[in-house]
Inverse folding.
């Protein structure tokens, strides 16, 4: 009986539906003398802080203290680059906190914050990629990846085009905003409950701020109400403020950002500007491509450099380009420090190449799907950074299978017929592929630890470094542990993620949570079985290598009826003084990348998929509906099909939100104008396609990954590029052919103007 | 003040009147209800109230972040913690577990409560109405598993929750709540209300709370005196007369939607586009008109229908045509101490009427431009009467009288349409903001009329 691969609900599902599942801020009533923190917000995007006087705040009843730079015993930054001051002398984005007020109530802290007197000297602010380029304001770059000689290959190409596309950022809008509660523990250490994807780094930052060795700081993440990358680094300042407050006042301190502060203060998906030149032949085969990427990194480095690398690694998506040159720059602007978000630059890189291919196809009057297919990687080819595209044949296999199952050809004809008879409403159809590299591109992050404890009654605790944010890592690890140890799921308890159980963990990010932590837990379980097998063998009268562990029973191979219960063997082992706990450890093998040369093998493997989407666009307004999406995705041998399907569908819908309706608008002062739930719109019911068919690629086991599975967190997000391309297809139908220019997000307004543009071209053509 | 929470009577004192029900629940250890936005957009805080509906007692889903605690006086509330009984999950909970409807779980309690309210709705049809969930946002699942969970639900089981619906709902009566931070007064009649307002003209009126509580939560606006309008029977009327329909200003839009049978197309189109069901369960027409937002959804619809508002004050009553009600940005003809009693919609309703709303998201978004159009055609396909009303194109909701006048008597033709579109460009000067550019707003004002034209022209068999 296999536990791995079984479709089971999320391990906390019952707690979720009853409201019993606890998140960081749900702990607040457990701390009776808790203080609440509220920031003093700078009203400028860029300014010097000339003076800060907290004295009037202290007069507000209930205000306990005001945290300022003077209170910091260690280093007053929330990043280890020391470029994110907790109490800045120079304000770098609108709303940046310059001090924090602690109060006995939130109301007192908030009122206190309005009384802190701060004198600013406003400075000029850079608020867009274009302004940053003009001013030469960069945080990193130029970074470069290339193969061949794109410049001369472009010059030789029979056909050429160039273009550019602007890609908006994205607010994570995890339903649970940033939250931390810190207190001094019973032995004088600092305990921090934080909604963080990277407890070890949160621990590192808290220790750094307090000037303590890391062994004095424990960070626990119970679970998160969504992360999506937004809590990979950006939970750290709030944990640090809570810890600093607790350190100073000896009271527990709570920091919880309400939504409008979370949106104003926390980093987002990087907006990008992509410029490209393509050389191609009459069939649309790419011969040479040159791409220049500019990301808007905001005010500090954060993860912007690896995000840009990943964008550049994915500028090929699923296509072989003989001569390809990608250059990248991170622009420094006076905005929040943009950060990790599901896909981590990969989506932006792919949007650019997909936009390019669509233009190539439309400039030739060819169907975009034919041009895409013509350019696929074939087995044995390598990427522009020198990595062999393992299983490249799956790109074509998925494509062909999905085209058939979605009846693409028949529907192409139907869409054409519909459009011919419908002057005011047009439909569009597109299929796009995904190839996404799995592994942290910072090689050292590709390691994980686990600690598995068996108690004398046979019950088991599993500790690992992965954090649960809804993606189901705990569910998958639970299944791995149950399978590996041969005990029922109910006998295993997954513990909240804590830095005092497994040290020096990596962020739960880059889709690697289950790959890394699952493998580490598996190893610990194997060690424990090795120790238990000789004990069981004596009971069973068989050789230790013939002992099998399944469902809480231990028996000789082939004789399940002769079992002894797991708990009895455990007790016997205890009496024989055999250790019943083990650590597991995993490092992804054979990864290397040379940034200077831009060559190496940064990824363990690739995850593949493709999606077909059909949309209908209203020519009066530019509004649209998603009629149908078909997805075929490669998850290897699924560890947990219900979880994986959830990741595929959820990632797709999140991606379509990013590319269609989610719009970050900053006003002339650098204030986020779409800074709340009423102005920044996530996909809701109305965005769910009327028909959604999701299937997994069969016979897709990935050797060398835990139980043959594949990572699934990020890759499906990019399936949504099919929606954007379908919208362009529908826009094109309002005209008489030719390219479609459409930036992302393709809000109804952008779609409307794109329609106007193709209509205008048509009228000119008719006039001629 | 006291109310019933998950079947148990609870007393509230000392807390500020502007404490939200959500904050109260969480501070009481009932942390299942979550704050995702504090402005009624995400639904993570959804709870149900036991209320009298058109089909008897019902569970009504509301955003607990948008209720001031004293508004609960005498009410009965269930939270997610109250559903599972004797360790057994409610059907809606089991369905969510089974279908993989939760990932991070943070929005889940809110979905569970919306599912619950709909499953137990006395007048629900055989199939689950998915619109009932459109006030709940999920960032993880993409909604498909939640949809499947919802569609798997049959009729409500015969349990204690069903039994509760056979008993009458609490009747909201007059209430007074006071703490150091302020006072909340809920009059029990119009007379009582007007008398009180005459003495306290500075009082903040709160109908459903979906606007006032947002102001409290996000702008931290504090008032010393709140007057709740929920227990005034005169504001709850729904009366059909020969020549008009009278809609109580305090009727929730959810109730109105279910009571207004035979509503014209413009109204049927308008309901689902007005916020979410959770908001419609609390929000009122009086509130939406009184707050006078230029992007409110009801003014264009009501302006197109030639509605008027009945206003009462201590000095008496008056009827003001809606077209004269909006005086400036967020300013109305309402005087101090006055309340909107009802909205009067003349009959017969126009032959053609449509509501359009352009927004980034199709449901539960604030409009970039909204339009209400009404049209009567006379002999020879000429315009007998036309109304063009817009939101989002000026500081107030507007009717374009000059364009209406120019169209009247003209053939309903493409030529007339083009002329009207040209006049629209002269009549309005919209602004650019985060919802859309001025150019797009103007274009939409023109294009929506064009869309209306093509639809009515084809319906009337008029050749374009």
């Amino acid at each position: 009986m296999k536990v791995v691969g079984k479709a089971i609900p999320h391990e906390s599902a019952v707690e979720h539906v009853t409201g019993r599942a606890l998140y960081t801020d749900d702990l607040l009533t457990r701390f009776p003398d808790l203080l609440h923190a509220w920031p003093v917000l700078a009203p400028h995007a860029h300014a010097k802080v000339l003076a800060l006087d907290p004295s009037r705040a202290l007069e507000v009843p209930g205000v306990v203290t005001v945290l300022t730079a003077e209170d910091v015993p260690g280093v007053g930054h929330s990043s280890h680059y020391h470029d994110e001051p907790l109490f800045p002398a120079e304000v770098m984005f609108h709303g940046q906190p310059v001090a924090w007020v602690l109060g006995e109530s939130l109301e007192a802290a908030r009122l206190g914050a309005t009384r802190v007197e701060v004198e600013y000297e406003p400075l000029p602010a850079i608020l867009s990629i274009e302004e940053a380029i003009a001013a030469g304001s960069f945080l990193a770059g130029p970074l470069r990846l290339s193969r061949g000689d794109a410049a001369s290959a472009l010059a030789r190409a029979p056909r050429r085009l160039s273009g550019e596309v602007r890609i908006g950022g994205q607010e994570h809008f995890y339903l649970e905003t940033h939250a931390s509660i810190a207190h001094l523990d019973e032995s004088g250490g600092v305990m921090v409950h934080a909604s963080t994807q990277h407890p070890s780094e949160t621990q590192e930052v808290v220790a750094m701020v307090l000037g303590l060795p890391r062994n004095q700081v424990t960070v626990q993440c119970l679970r998160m109400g969504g992360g999506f990358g937004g809590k990979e680094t950006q939970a750290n300042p709030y944990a640090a403020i809570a810890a600093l407050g607790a350190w100073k006042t000896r009271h527990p301190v709570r920091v919880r950002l309400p939504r409008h502060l979370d949106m104003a203060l926390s980093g987002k998906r990087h907006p990008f500007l992509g410029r490209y030149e393509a050389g191609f032949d009459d069939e649309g085969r790419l011969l040479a491509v040159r791409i220049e990427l500019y990301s808007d990194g905001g005010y500090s480095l954060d993860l912007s450099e690896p995000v840009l690398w990943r964008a550049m690694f994915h500028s090929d998506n699923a296509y072989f380009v003989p001569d390809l040159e990608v250059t990248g720059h991170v622009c420094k602007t006076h905005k929040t420090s943009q950060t990790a978000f599901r896909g981590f630059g990969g989506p932006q890189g792919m949007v650019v190449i997909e936009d390019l291919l669509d233009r190539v196809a439309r400039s030739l009057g060819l169907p975009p799907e034919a041009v895409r297919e013509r350019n696929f990687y074939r087995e044995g080819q390598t990427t522009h950074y020198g990595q062999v595209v393992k299983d490249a044949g799956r790109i074509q296999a998925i494509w062909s299978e999905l085209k058939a199952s979605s009846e693409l050809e028949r529907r192409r004809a139907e869409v054409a017929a519909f459009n011919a008879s419908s002057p005011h409403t047009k439909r569009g159809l597109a299929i796009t592929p995904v190839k996404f590299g799995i592994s942290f591109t910072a090689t050292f992050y590709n390691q994980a630890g686990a600690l598995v404890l068996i108690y004398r009654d046979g019950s088991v605790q599993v500790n690992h470094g992965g954090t649960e944010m809804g993606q189901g890592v705990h569910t998958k690890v639970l299944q791995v542990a149950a399978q590996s140890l041969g005990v029922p799921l109910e006998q295993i308890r997954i513990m909240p993620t804590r830095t005092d159980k497994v040290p020096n963990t990596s962020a739960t990010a880059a889709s690697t949570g289950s790959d890394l932590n699952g493998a580490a837990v598996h190893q610990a379980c194997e060690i424990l079985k090795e120790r238990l097998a000789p004990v069981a063998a004596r009971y069973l009268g068989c050789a230790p290598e013939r002992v099998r562990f399944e469902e809480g029973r231990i028996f000789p191979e082939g004789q399940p009826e002769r079992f002894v219960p797991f708990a009895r063997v455990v007790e016997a082992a205890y009496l024989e003084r055999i250790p019943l706990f083990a650590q597991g450890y995993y490092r992804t093998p054979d990864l290397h990348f040379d940034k200077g040369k831009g060559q190496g093998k940064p990824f363990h493997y690739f995850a593949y998929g493709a999606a077909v989407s059909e949309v209908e666009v209203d020519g009066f307004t530019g509004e649209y509906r998603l009629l149908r999406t078909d997805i075929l995705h490669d998850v290897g041998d699924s560890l947990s099909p219900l979880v994986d399907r959830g990741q595929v569908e959820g990632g797709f819908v999140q991606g379509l939100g990013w590319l269609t309706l989610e719009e970050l608008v900053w006003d002339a002062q650098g204030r986020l104008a779409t800074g709340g739930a009423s102005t920044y719109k996530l996909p809701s019911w109305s965005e769910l396609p009327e028909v959604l068919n999701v299937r997994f690629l069969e016979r897709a086991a990935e050797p060398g990954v835990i139980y043959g599975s594949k990572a699934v967190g990020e890759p499906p997000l990019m399936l949504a590029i099919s929606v954007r391309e379908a919208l362009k297809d529908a826009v094109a139908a309002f005209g008489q052919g030719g390219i479609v220019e459409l930036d992302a997000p393709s809000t109804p307004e952008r779609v409307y103007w794109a329609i106007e543009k193709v209509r205008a071209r048509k009228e000119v053509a008719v006039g001629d | 003040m006291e109310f019933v929470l998950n079947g148990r009577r609870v007393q509230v004192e000392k807390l500020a009147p502007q404490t939200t029900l959500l904050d109260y629940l969480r501070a009481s250890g009932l942390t299942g209800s979550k704050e995702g936005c504090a402005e009624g957009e995400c639904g993570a805080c959804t709870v149900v109230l036991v209320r009298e509906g058109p089909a008897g007692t019902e569970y009504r889903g509301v955003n607990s972040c948008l209720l001031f605690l004293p508004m609960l006086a005498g009410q009965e509330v269930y939270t997610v913690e109250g559903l599972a009984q004797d360790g057994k999950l409610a059907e809606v909970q089991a369905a969510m577990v089974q279908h993989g409807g939760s990932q991070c779980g943070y929005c889940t309690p809110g979905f569970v409560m919306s599912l619950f309210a709909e499953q137990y709705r006395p007048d629900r049809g055989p199939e689950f109405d998915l619109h009932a969930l459109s006030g709940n946002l999920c960032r993880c699942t993409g909604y498909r598993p939640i949809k499947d969970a919802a569609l798997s639900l049959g009729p409500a089981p015969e349990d204690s929750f069903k039994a509760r619906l056979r008993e009458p709902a609490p009747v909201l009566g007059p209430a007074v709540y006071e703490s150091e931070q302020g006072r909340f007064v809920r009059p029990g009649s119009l007379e009582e209300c007007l008398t009180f307002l005459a003495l306290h003209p500075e009082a903040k009126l709160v109908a459903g709370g979906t606007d006032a509580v947002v102001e409290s939560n996000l702008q931290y606006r504090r008032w010393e005196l709140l007057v709740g309008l929920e227990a005034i029977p005169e504001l709850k009327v729904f009366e059909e007369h020969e020549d008009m329909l009278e809609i109580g200003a305090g009727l929730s839009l959810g109730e109105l939607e279910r009571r207004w049978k035979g509503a014209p197309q413009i109204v049927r189109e308008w309901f689902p586009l007005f916020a979410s069901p959770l908001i419609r369960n609390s929000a009122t027409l009086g509130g939406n008109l009184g707050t006078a937002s230029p992007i409110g959804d009801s003014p264009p619809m009501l302006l197109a229908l030639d509605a008027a508002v009945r206003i009462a004050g201590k000095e008496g009553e008056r009827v003001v045509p809606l077209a004269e009600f909006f005086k400036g940005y967020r300013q109305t003809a309402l005087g101090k101490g006055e309340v909107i009693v009802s909205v009067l919609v003349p009959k017969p309703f126009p032959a053609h009427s449509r509501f359009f709303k352009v927004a980034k998201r199709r449901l539960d978004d604030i409009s970039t431009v909204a339009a209400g159009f009404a049209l009567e055609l006379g002999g020879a396909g000429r315009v007998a009467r036309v109304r063009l009303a817009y939101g989002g194109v000026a500081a107030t909701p507007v009717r374009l009288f000059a364009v209406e006048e120019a169209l009247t008597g003209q053939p309903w033709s493409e030529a007339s349409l083009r002329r009207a579109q040209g006049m629209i460009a002269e009549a309005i000067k919209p602004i650019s903001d985060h919802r859309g550019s001025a150019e797009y707003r103007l274009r939409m004002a023109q294009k929506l009329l064009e869309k209306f034209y093509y639809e009515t022209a084809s319906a009337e068999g008029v050749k374009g």
